[in-house]
TrEMBL record, chain A:
SUPFAM superfamilies, per database record: Second domain of Mu2 adaptin subunit (ap50) of ap2 adaptor, SNARE-like
Domain MHD: 176-417
Main location group: membrane
The name this protein goes by in its record: MHD domain-containing protein
Keyword Lyase: no
Protein's organism: Pogonophryne albipinna
GO annotation, cellular component aspect: clathrin adaptor complex; cytoplasmic vesicle membrane; Golgi apparatus
Automatic annotation (TrEMBL), chain B:
Main location: membrane
Function statement: Subunit of non-clathrin- and clathrin-associated adaptor protein complex 3 (AP-3) that plays a role in protein sorting in the late-Golgi/trans-Golgi network (TGN) and/or endosomes. The AP complexes mediate both the recruitment of clathrin to membranes and the recognition of sorting signals within the cytosolic tails of transmembrane cargo molecules. AP-3 appears to be involved in the sorting of a subset of transmembrane proteins targeted to lysosomes and lysosome-related organelles.
The protein, known as: AP-3 complex subunit beta
4Fe-4S recorded as keyword: no
Organism, scientific name: Champsocephalus esox (pike icefish)
Bias type Acidic residues, positions: 710-720
Membrane topology: Peripheral membrane protein
Taxonomic lineage of the native organism: Eukaryota, Metazoa, Chordata, Craniata, Vertebrata
Compositional bias annotation for Basic residues: 748-762
Length: 418, 1102
């Protein structure tokens, strides 16, 4: 399946290669570079590129291209999903997935890639299993290893590999037993010029951090499970229980994992937490443009809107922006024409605004389109869909765990057209 | 210096640094620096690798891996590295493996040095080491070791550990790519591994199947249902592979569910939620199409996977539904596909491509989700274009206004490529939906005054196409375009306008000649495509309006005559001959008008995804729209379904054998050479399969798991009986094929006939007499039959001198075993003293109450108080071998399941182990050592201090199998030795009986419908139709309790799984003409299907 993997940084250098079958010359990447040149933006490189003898399937994350070389028919999503899993694993191991981190840990990276694929077919991709095979590098462990000569590599087959719960390792022990669940919802919306909602939907996830001793069996139930329209589960969740009773029953993996992601049905009206008053205009013949933006809270259910960040891709003709924020700071990148305004918290008494002028390139004609505005925000202690966890119970172990559930709402792809 | 830099680049940054120092210190020439740097660097690594210090070696290997990762050549270190292949340090060893796999191909001779290490490691007791040894061995692409690999694969395919078997499935593909000659042998291994029941193996072996022999669809038949049932538990990558394969399989085996169209909508919807049995009832309603239950099984078992977190799995299920499900069921996939659009950019790209193809054929299913395809300014261009494509496909009279409003926003996008694509999309909407054609057209005309050139150009092109489809009364637009002509510089747009002028020159009689005049002025400066259209325009005008344009035309034709491009010269020459009458031109001239001004068919604006449906969705080929290497065509539905009975699996494998070194089966008194090994099995299977439907020994020899050698007596009997029936035909035919076995088949037959009468009388006796732990009769039976069999085995050995080593081993084995059995006889009779609970007595109230409370805690359904876990009233005992005394250096062990609640923990299955000392000295300190998986919960027996020679002792232990038939592996230790043994429970042993009333039964059954129900229709043997016989057969297979039934034809049994307490309901409904419907309701669906298969066997068989 996957023949080889090349890692290419933003400046076009191949800084790591790994082959699972016979060696494929790195010159195969030339086709990739060609495609990269043709694409105007890094994101526009097509994910699947055919070459005379191979097919290149790539993903772009953290400004690194992960290019897999394929020789014959394989579902492209299979490769893409795997590559993303590789990135996730690196992130899990090194904290960040950057060129520097990968280069510093090249041996661990190689050991990981070796375990993750055998002959191009995924072998172990479950984080709990990998961590038993290859321990993540920590400063302490590196020191201990240099002194004692012990290694990062496990000698036994990971227990999960053979058990019915491959995602969990055995023999887990904690002095403090804790289980935390974060319900995070993101609002995807497009708001049109006049402020009416064109489309809005809620995508939610439940991320968990479970540090429990032994083999706990957890059940999580919701007050209003009917809200969840479409769900996808971590493999640990017992599907039939969900189908029958709308209860999440599972033996959790150890550590951090995503238990569930869900979609709240579009039938429900989605509350839009903020409104934007905007007046962006360019006058024909003048080299000046007006920029006027005011934000205000809309349906927030009494919670405050925090960490608001407004960004907008201004038209190419804009040279500079001379703006005055009532709060927070703004930056304008004259190269990428990206305007970012870090608003912070919205105070309903004193609405944040950003006003001023933009100067256009002399002689440039009026841009056709006003820039659209992307908004990021956070609302703590609330899931905008109204989803509520009813209770969390543990079976199978005797101790009393510490349980915590946190709600948060964020703006996902929240766009205002102007 | 420049050369140094050049070479240093190859040597890596480190080398560059060293070289730099080198050069600064010595003023030596470039050549010196060049060689020394490379040389020195490797010397340094070489020294480190050859040092005695582990840490230095490791450090060196890490640097070497660094070099490999950068793509630098490190092959000259091969000899130094390969020495460390046997290192004790596991990390060092792994890094050496990495190196070896990378360079072995280049250094084949040296690579051979490492082979022996791997061969040794293949025999390591640690499964992980065995697995990784096979992985590396098979990854070394050295043709010389092909035979070694082949052998290793065969052995590993029979390994005890599923992990090692998985590795062997991977190795099959590697070997195949190295040497395709081995295909036949590899197919045999694949066939064997396909029978494997471990979820770990399933994905890998199907992958190997796809790679090696995707056309051998016949290998799948028998495993089809198993694969369907295992699917949910297979790891996610395996799911993708299996689903793709099953899609192809289903297209060859089932008939199309699409024929009827809307007529059977409701019925089928219902059938979807109901069970197979429901389906079957539908058949009787004289419906023209009924879905094959196996087809339904596949659809049903893949459906939950739409909820997978793995996008590849979701996509794969989606394509399966698209290609296999009845039309009205396909829409369940849309929600999941739309969900995937939240994922990464690359995932979106692929999913959108597939949705684009689907939305052409079935726009209805995606229409409710139209808003999910609205474009955001932050999307990448190819995502935007795909979304646009889909929106266009979804457009219909009802939603077109919304879509067009959305398009208006897109047209203004700063991304001009996207804006251009939008214009094309508008054009398509305009042609497809006649209501809006005029609106679209006027909108596009407005765009003609856009400042952006590409937008204008695209509009012109689209308008041209639109006008062509509706050439009436659009002269205004043509005039408008003529006015814009001077401002448009994009050649495609200019050419389009010229063409329009020429085509509709009769509508704009004044303007067209003027345009031609302008063109004549700028002709030389135009692009080729514009020139061609100018010539065209000139010709058309000449024909319609020659008065005004004659001179202009001639001027243009003259310009064209001397043009640089031969295309234009040719065209000019052709046009001149065509339109200007002269003596040479002849007849063609008359037709010039008809040729040039012929009505032209309007272009069809259609999606670029129109013809993509010729490829299977979700494939690489679909994504690229060209056939990728290795693409397997999805065949059309067959008109008539092939025989569905090929998928019936009658072979039951209760007793299986894994140990790789141990010879195959006891029945194989005939010699088998190693390479005939598999083909042999196959043959036999064919012969015997037809004969008596199940020959447990042949099946167990080919797949199987437990360390069982001879097994219980009843087991042996059934196998031998069936063998007997088939032996005449089977044995002799196989015998004739192998000349060496001829001499041997004779005594074998004699033995059979000798035994026959004895055997036949036995089974009923054994069953009826045996009580709870009725070891007495069984033991007696076993002793007698064992004696006879031992006798005959000796016979056959004597009469068969040219036996292969393998066979000898077997014979040697079976002989002492027989002796042991006869010795065991006495202690077995005394067993009652050892057994922990009195026979048939109700379980102590303490246990059962705690058990019930525990079960209540685990299961969420309300358990009525009338339902209790009871002890079995009845149950024959099968004894399995745990440790053979040859392997155990005198210690032999057998075990059976006494079917009592375990004393130690309610979630454990009670197992009784009989230990016998067959050696001549006493064994001390017999206990249980390490176990695997480590999580395995075993309650061990107390250490046995001393076991005298010839003595035996029975001990009981408890094992928590967690409701899986996965074998429990542990070590049986004596003072000096330890032996790895394993206990694999038959699925029926993982249950405990539960008693309930008929009402409770049907109430519980009602809760376990749909996915939780598994059923099959069987043909009962006539001997089995009485209530007594049925309950006897059922109870012999599984540990359940009988539920009193008011109907005579319905037999009900209830039990609970030991670990989780999940309810298992078995129901046998007798129908006319000795058929019966066997239904199992439980939430453990894997268990249900295994149980179903296990139950089918004795009921069908007389």
């Amino acid at each position: 399946m996957i023949h080889s993997l090349f890692l290419i940084n933003s400046s076009g250098d191949i800084f790591l290669e790994k082959h699972w079958k016979s060696v494929v010359s790195r010159s195969v990447c030339d086709y990739f570079f060609e495609a990269q040149e043709r694409a105007t933006e890094p994101e526009n490189v097509p994910p699947v590129i055919p070459t005379p003898h191979h097919y290149l399937i790539s993903v772009l994350r953290h400004r690194i291209y992960f290019v897999a070389v394929i020789q014959s028919e394989v579902p492209p999503l299979f490769v893409i999903e795997f590559l993303h899993r590789v990135v996730d694993t690196f992130q899990d191991y090194f904290g960040v997935c950057t060129e520097a981190a990968i280069k510093d840990n090249v041996v661990v990276v190689y050991e990981l890639l070796e375990e993750m694929l055998d002959n191009g077919f995924p072998l172990a991709t479950e984080s709990n299993i990998l961590k038993e095979l290859i321990k993540p590098p920590t400063i302490l462990r590196t020191m201990v290893n240099t002194i004692t000569g012990s290694t990062n590599v496990g000698e036994q087959l990971p227990t999960g590999q053979l058990s019915v719960v491959p995602w969990r390792r055995t023999g887990v022990k904690y002095t403090n037993n804790e289980a935390y669940f974060d319900v995070v919802e993101e609002i995807d919306a497009i708001i049109d010029k006049s402020g009416s909602t064109i489309t809005a939907e809620i995508q939610g996830v439940i991320d968990a951090c479970v540090k429990l001793t032994g083999m706990p069996d957890l059940t999580l139930s919701f007050m209003n499970p009917r809200l969840l329209d479409d769900v996808s589960f971590h493999p640990c969740v017992r599907f039939k229980r969900w189908e029958a009773e709308r209860i999440l029953s599972f033996i959790p993996p150890d550590g951090n994992f995503r238990l569930l992601s869900y979609h709240v049905s579009s039938q429900n009206l989605v509350a839009i937490p903020v409104y934007v008053k905007h007046n962006i205009s360019f006058r024909e013949g003048s080299s000046q443009g007006r920029f006027d933006l005011t934000l205000g809270p809309k349906q927030t259910m009494g919670k405050s809107v925090e960490a608001v960040l407004v960004s907008s891709q201004l038209p190419r003709g804009v040279l500079t922006a001379n703006l005055n924020p009532s709060q927070g700071t703004y930056t304008f990148d004259p190269v990428t024409k990206m305007l970012t305004w870090d608003v912070g918290k919205i105070n309903p008494q004193k609405l944040p605004s950003l006003k001023g002028t933009m100067s256009l390139q002399a002689g440039a004609s009026k841009p056709d389109e006003n820039p659209s505005i992307n908004i990021q925000l956070k609302i703590q202690q609330m899931a905008i869909s109204g989803l509520k966890v009813n209770r969390l119970d543990m079976y199978g172990e005797k101790y009393k765990p510490f349980k915590g559930i946190k709600y948060m709402t964020k703006a996902g792809k929240f766009q205002v057209r102007t | 210096m420049s050369t140094i830099a050049l070479y240093n680049d190859q040597g890596g940054a480190e080398a560059a640094m060293e070289a730099g120092q080198e050069n600064s210190s010595s003023t030596g020439g470039a050549a010196f620096g060049l060689f020394s740097s490379d040389f020195k660097k490797n010397e340094d690594l070489k020294e480190m690798l050859e040092s005695n210090k582990e840490s230095l070696k490791l450090e060196a290997m890490k640097r070497v891996v660094g070099l490999i990762s950068k793509g630098k050549n490190a092959s000259e270190l091969f000899p130094a590295v390969v020495k460390n292949v046997a290192s004790k340090n596991i990390e060092l060893k792994k890094l050496v493996y990495v190196y070896l796999v990378r360079y072995a191909e280049e250094q084949q001779d040296l690579a051979l040095l490492s082979i022996s290490t791997f061969q040794r490691a293949l025999k390591d007791p640690n499964q992980f080491i065995r697995g990784s040894a096979l992985r590396v061995l098979s990854s070394i692409r050295v043709p010389i070791i092909v035979p070694i690999m082949m052998l290793a694969i065969k052995e590993a395919a029979a390994d005890l550990s599923p992990y090692v078997r998985k590795t062997s499935a991977h190795a099959i593909q590697k070997l195949y790519s190295l040497d395709p000659e081995q295909k036949e042998q590899l197919i045999e291994v694949i066939e064997k591994l396909l029978k494997d029941k471990s979820t770990l193996v399933a994905g890998s072996v199907v992958m190997a199947f796809e790679e090696v022999c995707p056309d051998r669809i016949d290998l799948i038949h028998k495993n089809y249902r198993k694969l369907c049932n295992l699917l949910v538990d297979v790891e996610e990558w395996g799911q993708v592979v299996i689903i793709s394969m099953l899609t192809r399989y289903a297209r060859t085996q089932f008939t199309s569910p699409w024929k009827e169209g809307a007529t059977f909508d409701e019925n089928n919807d219902k059938a979807f939620y109901d069970s197979d049995s429901e389906d079957k009832r539908d058949t009787t309603e004289a419906k023209p199409y009924t879905m094959d239950p196996d087809h339904r099984l596949l659809l049903r078992n893949t459906k939950p996977l739409l909820q997978s977190r793995n996008t590849a799995v979701v996509m794969c299920v989606a394509q399966l539904y698209w290609h296999l499900a009845p039309m009205q069921e396909v829409n369940i996939i849309t929600k999941s596909l739309v969900r995937l659009l939240r994922s990464h950019r690359e995932v979106q790209y692929i999913v959108l491509q597939n949705i684009a193809t689907m939305s052409i054929q079935r726009k209805g299913i995606f229409e409710p989700y139209m808003k999910s395809f609205y474009v955001r300014s932050t999307d990448a261009t190819h995502i935007k274009t795909l979304k646009l494509e889909i929106l266009t496909n979804l457009a219909n009279e009802a939603n077109i206004s919304t879509i067009l409003r959305e398009f208006q926003t897109y047209v203004k996008s700063q991304d001009k490529a996207f804006a251009a694509a939008t214009i094309q999309a508008i054009g398509r909407c305009a042609t497809n939906i006649t209501d809006v054609t005029d609106t679209c057209l006027s909108g596009l005309v407005l765009l003609l005054s856009n400042r952006d050139e590409t937008v204008v150009a695209e509009s012109v092109v689209v308008i041209k196409k639109l006008l062509q489809t509706q050439p009436t009364q659009h002269s205004e637009i043509i005039k408008h375009m003529a006015k814009l002509f001077d401002n448009i510089t994009v050649s495609m747009a200019r050419a389009s306008i010229l063409w329009l002028m020429g085509e509709y020159c009769d509508r704009v009689p004044k303007i067209a000649p003027d345009v031609l005049r302008k063109m004549a002025k700028t002709f030389t400066a135009e692009e080729d495509i514009v020139k061609l259209q100018t010539v065209n325009l000139a010709a058309k005008l000449y024909l319609t309006n020659s008065k005004q344009t004659k001179l202009l035309t001639q001027y243009i034709l003259n310009l064209g005559k001397y043009d640089q491009s031969y295309d234009i010269r040719d065209r000019t020459r052709f046009i001149r001959q065509l339109i200007v009458p002269n003596e040479k031109s002849g007849a063609l001239n008359k037709y010039a008008r008809r040729i040039l001004l012929a009505p032209k068919p309007a272009p069809v604006l259609e999606s670029s995804f129109k013809d993509r449906d010729r490829f299977q969705l979700g494939t690489l080929s679909h994504s690229l729209n060209t056939k990728a290497a290795g693409y397997q065509e999805l065949s059309d539905w067959p008109a008539v379904a092939p025989d569905q009975s090929v998928r019936n699996v009658e072979v039951i494998e209760p007793v299986q054998e894994w140990a790789p070194s141990v010879g195959k089966t006891k029945k194989s008194g005939k010699p088998k050479s190693a390479d005939k090994f598999y083909s042999d099995d196959e043959e036999e299977k064919k012969e015997e399969g037809s004969e008596s439907s199940k020959d447990s020994s042949s099946s167990s020899s080919s797949s199987s798991s437990s360390s069982e050698e001879s097994g219980s007596e009843s087991e042996e009997e059934s196998s031998e009986e069936s063998e007997k029936t088939s032996s005449d035909s089977g044995k002799s035919s196989s015998g004739s094929e192998k000349s060496s076995s001829e001499s041997e088949s004779e005594p074998k037959k004699k033995k059979k006939t000798k035994k026959a009468p004895q055997k036949k009388s036995k089974p009923p006796a054994a069953f009826s007499d045996s009580d709870e732990n009725g070891n007495g009769p069984v033991a007696q039976a076993s002793s007698s039959s064992a004696e006879s069999s031992s006798g005959s085995e000796t016979d056959s050995e004597d009469s068969d001198p040219p036996a292969t080593p393998q066979k000898k081993k077997k014979d040697v084995k079976s002989k002492p075993k027989a002796e042991v059995k006869s010795k065991v006889e006495v202690p077995l009779l005394d067993l009652v003293d050892f057994s922990p609970a009195p026979t048939n007595a109700p379980p102590s109230s303490v246990i059962s109450s705690s058990l019930i409370s525990d079960l209540e805690g685990l299961s969420l359904s309300n358990i009525s108080s009338t339902m209790q876990v009871t002890t079995p009233s009845f149950g024959p005992v099968k004894t399995y071998e745990l440790l053979h005394h040859m392997t155990g250096k005198g210690l032999s062990a057998k075990y059976h399941f006494p079917r009592q609640p375990c004393l130690y923990e309610p979630s454990m299955v009670a197992v009784q182990v009989i230990l016998t000392n067959g050696s001549d000295h006493s064994l001390e300190e017999i206990h249980i050592g390490e176990r695997s998986p480590a999580a395995l919960n075993i309650h061990c027996f107390n250490t046995i201090e001393r076991l005298e020679p010839e003595a035996s002792v029975t001990v009981s232990m408890g094992i928590d199998f967690s409701d899986s038939t996965q074998a429990a592996h542990f070590q049986l230790c004596t003072k000096e030795d330890q032996f790895s043994v394993s206990i694999q429970p038959a699925v029926g042993e993982l249950l405990m009986p539960s008693s309930m009333t008929e009402q409770d039964y049907s109430k519980e059954q009602g809760k376990l419908l749909g996915m939780n129900e598994t059923s099959a229709t069987i043909t009962m043997a006539t001997a089995n139709t009485s209530r007594l016989a049925i309950s006897k057969q059922v109870l012999s297979v599984c540990n359940v309790g009988e539920v009193p039934s008011s109907q005579n034809t319905v037999h009900r049994f209830a039990g609970r799984t030991v670990s989780s307490g999940a309810l298992v309901l078995v129901c046998l409904e007798l129908k006319e003409s000795s058929t019966a419907l066997l239904t199992i309701n439980t939430e453990k669906s894997v268990m249900a299907s295994m149980l179903l298969r296990d139950l089918k066997q004795p009921l069908v068989q007389a």
